[in-house]
Amino acid sequence: MSPRPGFVLEVDRSTPPTLFWHGERFALERLPEGSRVIYAPEPIEPLRDPVAAVRHALTHPMGDTEPLPALLRPGMKLTVCFDDVSLPLPPMEAPDVRQLVIEQVLEMAAEAGVDDVVLVAALALHRRMTEPELRHALGDRIYDAFAPHGLLTQHDAEDPDNLIELGQTELGEDVVLNKRAATSDLLVYVNINLVAMDGGHKSVATGLASYKSLRHHHNPATMRHSRSFMDAPASELHTSNWRMGRLIAASGVKVFQIETTLNTDTFPSRFAFLQKREWEWSLRDRATFAATAGALERTPARLSRQILHSIKSPHAMSSVQAGEVEAVHELTTANVWDQQGVEVEGQTDILTMGLPYICPYNVNSIMNPILVACLGLGYFFNLYRNKPLVREGGVLIMRHPTPWEFQPAHHPSYIDFFEQVLAETTDPMRIAKEYEESFATDPWYVHLYRTGHAYHGVHPFYMWYWCAHALEHLGRVIVVGGEPRAVRRLGFSPASTMDDALELATDVVGPSPTLTHIHTPPLLMADVR
Amino acid sequence: VRTLVFERNLPRFAAARVASALGSGRGAGVGPLRLADAEPPGLPGPDWVRVAPLLSGICGSDLATVDGRSSRYFEDLVSFPFVPGHEVVGTTDAGTRVVLEPVLGCQTRAIEPMCAACAAGHTGNCERTAFGHLRPGLQTGFCADTGGGWSAAGLVAHPSQLHRVPDDLSDEAAVTVEPVACAVHAVLSAQLRGTETVAVLGAGTLGLAATAALSHLSSTGRVPAPRQLLVGARYPHQRRLAAELGATAALPADQLARAVRRQSASLGLGPPSSGAQRLTGGADVVFDCVGSAESVGQALAMVGPRGRVVLIGMPANVRVDLASLWHREVTLAGAYAYGTENTGPDGPVRTFDLAFEVVAARDLGRLVSATYPLERFEEALAHAGAAGRRGAVKVVFDPRQPAPRPTAKKGSPP
Fold first, then answer.
1. What is the pTM of this model?
2. Do B266 and A444 count as a contact with CB atoms less than 8 A apart?
3. How far apart are CA A492 and CA A512, in angstroms?
4. Which of A94, A119, B68, B344 has the maximal Cβ count within 10 Å?
């Protein structure tokens, strides 16, 4: 039986309460009659033999490029770069896609007699991965073969000795890349395209870049004109990366792009209720939900966090493409939309969403208030093509406990950003102008980024810029069940209950508003007509 | 006449110390302070005058005294029984409204020749505060011969101690002049160069006064303007006032060290996950306006190499690790009282004259949050001891009339 497509439910009297994530917990909300709930398509069938599919992709590349084995030769310099810990979400059950792909790449390299091979985690300005995270992504065999010899590296955007300036795009954007990768005879990039935003020229131009390069597209003006991030042709962020990508190619950097998609089988079977539509919950689903929700309710947040972050997703590879960047990415993006796309008719006055315990930047960490804002306004708000799900001047209501809590080893500059910058202003433009450079160049943040497991000093700014379009577009943002002090610091309105939030929202959108809820998991993308 | 008298009474002193464990100012009910019917003090000399207090403030040193927590260092510098109250605005017999400069230096004690400090105008540093024709007392409010501000019977003052209050300055503003003078003196003694990151630890009366003084004196060219003036304040109303009075940033106290780190581009020592890192750099000047072991420790932790920690808040016995002071060549300086200041273009000027200017320019009468009659001294002192928590800054007595209830400014719960 083929998986069912996405679905837009109209809530009526018989509709059971709708499941919302609430950080490390769940909530059931009875939405007003007439509300719409958008459900993602069911997970598509995964590839039956992913290894064979990878080998096929590598030997049958797309676009103007030769098969990978033909690009490999003795004496050459090969660098294999891969997406970092921010993908996929949640981390997938072993073997990770990166392991599956890179093992095949390395096998072909060995067969071709290539012995100068270096692996690079394409962190951009993210935190360095820990050994267990690297082992999980690559498998023990690769880790043990490369790491002890210093051949498994993590991109360091602050290492002047390992950065190279390739020039400027026609719009004057600096392109500065990882030197080892850019000076290799072949750069193989292994992507996990969890959403349509991932991959393409963004992989190399962002993942292996420095602050000097990134600031040209990670800024409020670009973010405001990325409508949305999930729709590359309408995204300034992507347009800038594409300009850079073409400059990289013109500079002689040979990139062999490998992109993979995953189905949306997001949570293991013991959380099966998360993947289902509420009215289809079996007795067993209801019992599991009640037991899980009750247990999480009684468990201290810190312990709940540990439990949830230990979950490994049964995501399975649904496609793999390899070859020339743009040709590969076009098909990958189409595949992502096939899995996640849902047609939605028209915009809504109020958009609701439940935010989970995890986002790309708090894997094995704390979802601090800035990340809550970014997940809601940066990611979920942008899960659209054509038009935002919520109309201009509309209201976004999200559910999350939003604790005033940070992981100081991972997010040191976030703490200062939250305490010192957002206390002054939430305007992304002013923040960029007055504060960004001092954070980006702060020697302490640089030190922690390079030697510890800290996100770069400028990273919280990027999270805030990620919200820039939504902040400009929305009339109000309301957080249900959030810590009021933290919610207000973000510039949002706290509400104790969904009813209170809806009441607050009517001040902005008037009485009898339309309401649409994005039901996650799994992830979906709305094609708004 | 209604007067609050502080007597030497060791059992009560011990009781006050115990009671103060419940909260600052709680020693008033059981300690050596009592409401008495006292006669006005006699005039110590022919040129002395009587002053009838209009308002008299409660200061941190008063609270420490009432709670039995003052340092024994002061034992020989006070005489019993004394009437507390050294922050005073009052009227002379001639009807002139005056602010008292309470230091009892050589001139007030008719000591000739004056000590070197008094001769130089630095009366706060007088070496003779236990000598002369007055009994010991470093200030009015701690001397058995002068009376003090917490009395309807009035006090006596040497003309050199009195500063006429401009007609357009309210009593509330005038009663803040003395603590503001302390802050002015501290700011002028901090040897600012104009490139500093300055941190103010604590935003009670002294912290806010220091913020206002630094802001005003730098805006009028008396001291170089610091690059950053960061104020750590525990309570929201303190942060609001600090920002209004000129702080570049007013932060919760537990965030101040992080702000200092960022502004000074300092690195940290110790694992970031511990959340309690030591800074490699830090602020150039830290004004400690609290005076506790904790605040001195915090000040030393956030001051940079060769920096200066200025203690404005009165400390007592504190236990601190001085390793960083030694290693980083930090100067730990006290800033007590006032006298004469050399502010450059103005030449020598009385600290009080500058304080009057700061009070008027920054509207510091707003710091007075509640006024109590002497009869309600226990409540007044408890209120002063919990001022921050109760949304207040400066609590004062109005000794003139017994009143049934305290008056509180809007937004300041009594």
1. 0.90
2. yes
3. 22
4. A119
Of B275, B229, B272, the C-alpha closest to B255 is B275
pLDDT value at B203 more than 80: yes
Residue to mutate among B197, B258, B262, with most A CBs inside 10 A, is B262
Q: Which of A17, A28, A79 is nearest to A481 (CA)?
A: A28
Instruction: Report pLDDT for B178.
Output: 98
Q: Which of B249, B273, B274 sits opposite A420 (nearest CB)?
A: B249
* 8 Å CB contact between A337 and A1: no
A448 → closest Cβ in B262, B272, B275: B272
Q: Please say if the pLDDT value at position B413 is more than 50.
A: no
Encode pLDDT of B336-383 as tens digits: 999 999 887 778 999 999 999 999 999 999 999 999 999 999 999 999
Does residue B354 sit in helix, strand or coil?
helix
Q: What is the mean pLDDT of residues A438-442?
A: 97
Q: Identify the three-state secondary structure at position B268.
A: strand
- Burial of residue A282, with CB atoms counted within 10 A of its CB: 0-12 exposed, 13-18 middle, 19 or more buried: exposed
Contact B249 A448 (CB under 8 A): no
Whole-angstrom Cα distance, residue B297 to residue B204?
18
Q: How many residues does chain A have?
A: 529
Residue B274 with chain A: CB contacts under 8 Å:
408
Segment A265-282 mean pLDDT: 93
CB A265 within 8 A of CB A313: yes
Residue A90: cis peptide before it, omega within 30 degrees of 0: yes
Query: What interface predicted TM-score (ipTM) does this complex get?
Result: 0.84
> Binning pLDDT at 50, 70 and 90, where does residue B38 land?
very high
Q: In chain B, which residues have their Cβ closer than 8 Å to the Cβ of A415?
A: 258
Question: Mean pLDDT in chain A?
Answer: 97
| Cross-chain Cβ contact A448/B273 below 8 Å | no
Report the pLDDT value the prediction gives residue A1, as an integer from 0 to 100: 60
Closest approach of A322 to chain B, Cα-based (Å): 41
DSSP conformation letters of A336-401: HHHHHEEEE-S-EEEEEEE-BS--TT-TTS---HHHHHIIIIIIITT-EESS-SEEEEEEEEEE--
Chain B closest-CA separation from residue A333 CA (Å): 39
> How many residues comprise chain B?
414
Q: Is the pLDDT of residue B163 over 50?
A: yes
Cβ of A454 under 8 Å from any chain B Cβ?
yes
Rounded CA separation B335/B347 (Å): 21
Segment B385-392 shows an average pLDDT of: 96
Once rounded to an integer, what is the mean pLDDT over residues B123-133?
96
Residue A51 has pLDDT above 50, yes or no: yes
Share of chain A above pLDDT 90, in %: 98
Identify the contact set of chain B against chain A, taking CB-CB distances under 8 A. Answer: 249, 251-252, 255, 258-259, 261-262, 265-268, 271-275
Residue of chain A whose alpha carbon sits nearest to that of B269: A444
What CA–CA distance (Å, rounded) separates A410 from A413? 9
pLDDT-based confidence at A185, cuts 50/70/90? very high
State how far the Cα of B10 lies from the Cα of A518, in Å rounded to an integer.
72
Report yes or no: B70 and B17 within 8 Å, Cβ to Cβ: no
**Record: contact B258-A415, CB cut-off 8 A:** yes
Does the pLDDT value for residue A455 go beyond 50? yes
Min Cα separation B94/chain A (Å): 51
Q: Is A416 left (phi over 0), alpha (psi -120 to 50) or beta?
A: alpha
Q: Average pLDDT, whole number, for chain B?
A: 93
Question: Could you tell me which of B57, B68, B8 has the C-alpha nearest to residue B359?
Answer: B57
Contact B266 A452 (CB under 8 A): no
Q: Inter-chain contact A416–B262, Cβ cutoff 8 Å?
A: yes
